[in-house]
Amino acid sequence: MTLRLEGHIVTPEGVIAGHLDIAAGRIASVSGSPIDASRAGEGGCAVLLPGFIDTHVHGGGGRDTMEGGDAIATIARRHARHGTTALLATTMTAPLGDIEAALRALGPVCRERAAQSARVLGVHLEGPYINPGRLGAQPAHATAATLAEVLRLNDLAPIKVLTLAPEVPGHLALIGPLRDAGIRVQIGHSNGSYDDGVAALRAGAAGFTHLFNAMSALHHREPGMVGAALAHAEHAEFIPDLLHVHPGAIRAALRCIPGLFCVTDSTAAAGMPDGDYRLGEHTVQKCLGGVRLADGTLAGSALTMDQALRNLVQRLGLPLTDAVRRVSTAAAEYLGLADRGRLTAGAVADVVVMDEALAVQRVFVEGEEIDVVVDA
């Protein structure tokens, strides 16, 4: 059975007015005539985008990844309703036993996608291999990594991304072996110098975790980790909620880092009303659009990827085609996923249908239509 979607389709080559056919969970064909990207949604036409890919998801729908159990099922369902069709379940710094318990719960979910849910591609292990002086909102359980320990955790659930502070003794030498094991090392929660960052990239580090946040800042005589990223990185993630990073800093990063891509760093508060929620062992409060610890420290976000896209287009003024690259295609390329993050024949049928205002109307994950709530 073939399903046809019609409208203005954002493809890797630009926007076309036409139709897209879905069959057996894949895009069977895409056809139409090119139009100017600024006309997308004009005349009430639907706007078809590749499903969003979020490599940094701590929670959503009132649940936290570190809870284990069925928490990830709720998280994956909630984010799918906002257009995220694939994600990495992200852990917090915690005692090793807690991390192991979370990964045991994640393993089966990574192997098989649940109905009405985003695909959980694997794990982003954000802690505990970070600098205790740059915890941000991470709990105080930072420790040094060993290759044997990471590989043992990887046996529980596939670790696709690992955040690491390269200046911690022993960490620089681990980057190459981790890369060879198929784990992308991201520099983050780091107090290292510019030289530490450059050395980590040369050793095989793939990117940076929530660029600008929880890392040594750029100064013209001490460029820090931010300086290393802006000068040398091919890839980095950033949080476009406009609280974590000033729009001017985002624009600077867009000029410098070809594969810059969006993440939400979302907590259990994503998709939920204001109130108190769990983030690892912390209690955090959602208020005025942000999520914070009791001392006011930003603690992840309440962001969803559809709002990230709107922020890029409507607040920062990015062209729709570039914004789509930052919420979908660039992350797919970073993860080595040739059949996701793009609307082309043969790709996985991950599709988001939006209106002219970029509000979600329909979502398809691997060809399955997700039940979304559309505002009247």
From TrEMBL:
One Pfam short name: Amidohydro_1
InterPro entries reported for this sequence: Amidohydro-rel, GlcNAc_6-P_deAcase, Metal-dep_hydrolase_composite, Metal_Hydrolase
GO molecular function ontology, one term from the record: N-acetylglucosamine-6-phosphate deacetylase activity
Domain Amidohydrolase-related as annotated: residue spans: 47-368
Catalytic activity, EC: 3.5.1.25
Keywords, sorted A to Z: Carbohydrate metabolism, Hydrolase, Metal-binding
SUPFAM superfamilies assigned to the protein according to its UniProt record, in alphabetical order: Composite domain of metallo-dependent hydrolases, Metallo-dependent hydrolases
Similarity remark: Belongs to the metallo-dependent hydrolases superfamily. NagA family.
Protein name: N-acetylglucosamine-6-phosphate deacetylase
Organism in which the protein naturally occurs: Pelomonas cellulosilytica
